[in-house]
Amino acid sequence: MRRPKVLTIAGSDTSAGAGIQADLMTLADFNAEGKTVVTALTAQTPNAVFAVEPVGNRILQEQLSAVKHIALRGIKIGLIVAPAQVAIIANFIRQLRQKTAAELWVVLDPVLNASAGSQLQLPGTLEAIQSQLLPLVDVITPNLDEAEVLTGLRPTAPNDRVQAAMQIQRMGPGSVVIKGGHDTAGHCLDYGLCGQNHYWLQSPRQAVSNSHGTGCRFSSAIAALLARDYPLKDALTLAKAYINHSLALAKDSPEANLPHPGWPENIELFPRALPNALQNPEPLELPPGPGFAPCKTKPLGLYPVVDSVDWITRLIPLAVKTLQIRLKHAGPDELRQQLTEAIALCRENEVQLFINDHWQLAIELDAYGVHLGQEDLLKADLSAIARAGLRLGVSTHGEYEMMLAHSLKPSYMAFGAIFDTKTKDMSGQLQGTERLGRYVRLIKNCPQVAIGGINADNLDSVLATGIESVAVVSAITEAEDVRARVKVFQSRLEGLTC
Ligand SMILES: Cc1ncc(COP(=O)(O)OP(=O)(O)O)c(N)n1
Ligand SMILES: Cc1nc(C(=O)O)sc1CCOP(=O)(O)O
Ligand SMILES: [Mg+2]
């Protein structure tokens, strides 16, 4: 799917800073093809609304009929001005869902804040949205004012944000994103309740004289990204980076529209992912001191991940310089014995050996490095790993996890799973080469490794992204001729650095 089709159902804004005009430009920035259904005409500048006129029910219905045959992957809903409009739109979504088995994401930007709401909406619209539309919505993106209108509680503190999101979730939407753009602290804290998972994103507050249209852009970006099969946590991360970029480029004029800056490509403008703002409203802290030791060999090159000392013994004579031992089923005695042998063998042969998961043993046995997944990362004593001089490699699956890992300045970051793999269930976490290319361009000063489903046949497409190291399991361990397979990988990877 190159350019998924996404419909925006919203009001027209004469200033083009918000509404359907801003939605279309945002959808284009995220490579989605926009379709439009107009709910109202407005006459406005970035800072004043002069007139709002709802379109009649018949023309609203006709517009929806005209797009109902399009294979839509996403719908973004913005301004709705009358209860009758809510009923027509809800009916349209119900019919579309009945008609097609394909996934259709519906994102609602509720445009409900008390002051604008009183100017823009007819009485009964809010109640109609709550009773008829919310049960059909996948993601709702209220700001603090709108969350307060929906729940009666202003969710200022992180815990209130969770409570408010849960309350809104009970009204129907599977996911609730409470935007922190109106936070008064030095940072904005955005919170996503996605099913039962909690995601927190922190960005420095940017004071601009006109932030008109940020809500429209944010929700349109999310709709486009969901339509492109991004998981919601990654869509949030990218949508926030987009808003941050737009605000950073804003002209200091109340009349100037915020720019549409294109796909986010500057890591400095990405939000920081916080593991759990309830326990700790700060980003994961870098361990004090010099941080994690760098890897000696850069790039890591071919990086086989194996499950025994036997495999390490076979691969060392083939000039493999980076290895990982990944033991998932060994009991404590066998684990200690295998790791002790593997570490000694690799040290003797100047091979960089990473221990998967078992960071305490890795420290105790003075290993070269450890590799941790995101969940282990939150439980591990990162300062102890850094103090002991061990390298740290971190798994990431998408932009949200990438931002969590990036704040730690690890010795390398792994991006996966690039392709489907039989070695581990990675469903819902496949990245593909287009996304891999974006990670490679974003992360400038940390060695990078791609993993997941990489084999001799698809290696060229992986290397075309600019990645210089690949971690593989089955491509090596299931090769008929291991020596020949290692050579294939080595020659293509070495070719990159010649
Ligand atoms: C290089 C590399 N990248 C990713 C992984 C996956 O690690 P993790 O997320 O900890 O999952 P398990 O390997 O423990 O199943 C890896 N091992 N190596
Ligand atoms: C262990 C593992 N971790 C992944 C991740 O994306 O984090 S993918 C993966 C399996 C890699 O095996 P193969 O090379 O056989 O596909
Ligand atoms: Mg692990």
Automatic annotation (TrEMBL):
<keyword id="KW-0808">Transferase</keyword>
<dbReference type="GO" id="GO:0008902">
    <property type="term" value="F:hydroxymethylpyrimidine kinase activity"/>
</dbReference>
<dbReference type="GO" id="GO:0004789">
    <property type="term" value="F:thiamine-phosphate diphosphorylase activity"/>
</dbReference>
<dbReference type="InterPro" id="IPR013749">
    <property type="entry name" value="PM/HMP-P_kinase-1"/>
</dbReference>
<feature type="binding site">
    <location>
        <begin position="324"/>
        <end position="328"/>
    </location>
    <ligand>
        <name>4-amino-2-methyl-5-(diphosphooxymethyl)pyrimidine</name>
    </ligand>
</feature>
<dbReference type="GO" id="GO:0009228">
    <property type="term" value="P:thiamine biosynthetic process"/>
</dbReference>
<dbReference type="InterPro" id="IPR022998">
    <property type="entry name" value="ThiamineP_synth_TenI"/>
</dbReference>
<dbReference type="GO" id="GO:0005829">
    <property type="term" value="C:cytosol"/>
</dbReference>
<comment type="function">
    <text>Condenses 4-methyl-5-(beta-hydroxyethyl)thiazole monophosphate (THZ-P) and 2-methyl-4-amino-5-hydroxymethyl pyrimidine pyrophosphate (HMP-PP) to form thiamine monophosphate (TMP).</text>
</comment>
<keyword id="KW-0418">Kinase</keyword>
<dbReference type="InterPro" id="IPR004399">
    <property type="entry name" value="HMP/HMP-P_kinase_dom"/>
</dbReference>
<keyword id="KW-0067">ATP-binding</keyword>
<feature type="binding site">
    <location>
        <position position="356"/>
    </location>
    <ligand>
        <name>4-amino-2-methyl-5-(diphosphooxymethyl)pyrimidine</name>
    </ligand>
</feature>
<dbReference type="InterPro" id="IPR013785">
    <property type="entry name" value="Aldolase_TIM"/>
</dbReference>
<feature type="binding site">
    <location>
        <position position="376"/>
    </location>
    <ligand>
        <name>Mg(2+)</name>
    </ligand>
</feature>
<comment type="similarity">
    <text>Belongs to the thiamine-phosphate synthase family.</text>
</comment>
<feature type="domain" description="Thiamine phosphate synthase/TenI">
    <location>
        <begin position="307"/>
        <end position="476"/>
    </location>
</feature>
<dbReference type="Pfam" id="PF02581">
    <property type="entry name" value="TMP-TENI"/>
</dbReference>
<feature type="binding site">
    <location>
        <begin position="421"/>
        <end position="423"/>
    </location>
    <ligand>
        <name>2-[(2R,5Z)-2-carboxy-4-methylthiazol-5(2H)-ylidene]ethyl phosphate</name>
    </ligand>
</feature>
<comment type="pathway">
    <text>Cofactor biosynthesis; thiamine diphosphate biosynthesis; thiamine phosphate from 4-amino-2-methyl-5-diphosphomethylpyrimidine and 4-methyl-5-(2-phosphoethyl)-thiazole: step 1/1.</text>
</comment>
<dbReference type="InterPro" id="IPR036206">
    <property type="entry name" value="ThiamineP_synth_sf"/>
</dbReference>
<feature type="domain" description="Pyridoxamine kinase/Phosphomethylpyrimidine kinase">
    <location>
        <begin position="13"/>
        <end position="248"/>
    </location>
</feature>
<dbReference type="GO" id="GO:0008972">
    <property type="term" value="F:phosphomethylpyrimidine kinase activity"/>
</dbReference>
<feature type="binding site">
    <location>
        <position position="453"/>
    </location>
    <ligand>
        <name>2-[(2R,5Z)-2-carboxy-4-methylthiazol-5(2H)-ylidene]ethyl phosphate</name>
    </ligand>
</feature>
<keyword id="KW-0479">Metal-binding</keyword>
<feature type="binding site">
    <location>
        <position position="357"/>
    </location>
    <ligand>
        <name>Mg(2+)</name>
    </ligand>
</feature>
<keyword id="KW-0784">Thiamine biosynthesis</keyword>
<keyword id="KW-0547">Nucleotide-binding</keyword>
<keyword id="KW-0511">Multifunctional enzyme</keyword>
<dbReference type="GO" id="GO:0009229">
    <property type="term" value="P:thiamine diphosphate biosynthetic process"/>
</dbReference>
<feature type="binding site">
    <location>
        <begin position="473"/>
        <end position="474"/>
    </location>
    <ligand>
        <name>2-[(2R,5Z)-2-carboxy-4-methylthiazol-5(2H)-ylidene]ethyl phosphate</name>
    </ligand>
</feature>
<feature type="binding site">
    <location>
        <position position="395"/>
    </location>
    <ligand>
        <name>4-amino-2-methyl-5-(diphosphooxymethyl)pyrimidine</name>
    </ligand>
</feature>
<feature type="binding site">
    <location>
        <position position="424"/>
    </location>
    <ligand>
        <name>4-amino-2-methyl-5-(diphosphooxymethyl)pyrimidine</name>
    </ligand>
</feature>
<dbReference type="InterPro" id="IPR034291">
    <property type="entry name" value="TMP_synthase"/>
</dbReference>
<dbReference type="InterPro" id="IPR029056">
    <property type="entry name" value="Ribokinase-like"/>
</dbReference>
<protein>
    <recommendedName>
        <fullName>Thiamine-phosphate synthase</fullName>
        <ecNumber>2.5.1.3</ecNumber>
    </recommendedName>
</protein>
<keyword id="KW-0460">Magnesium</keyword>
<dbReference type="GO" id="GO:0005524">
    <property type="term" value="F:ATP binding"/>
</dbReference>
<dbReference type="Pfam" id="PF08543">
    <property type="entry name" value="Phos_pyr_kin"/>
</dbReference>
<dbReference type="GO" id="GO:0000287">
    <property type="term" value="F:magnesium ion binding"/>
</dbReference>
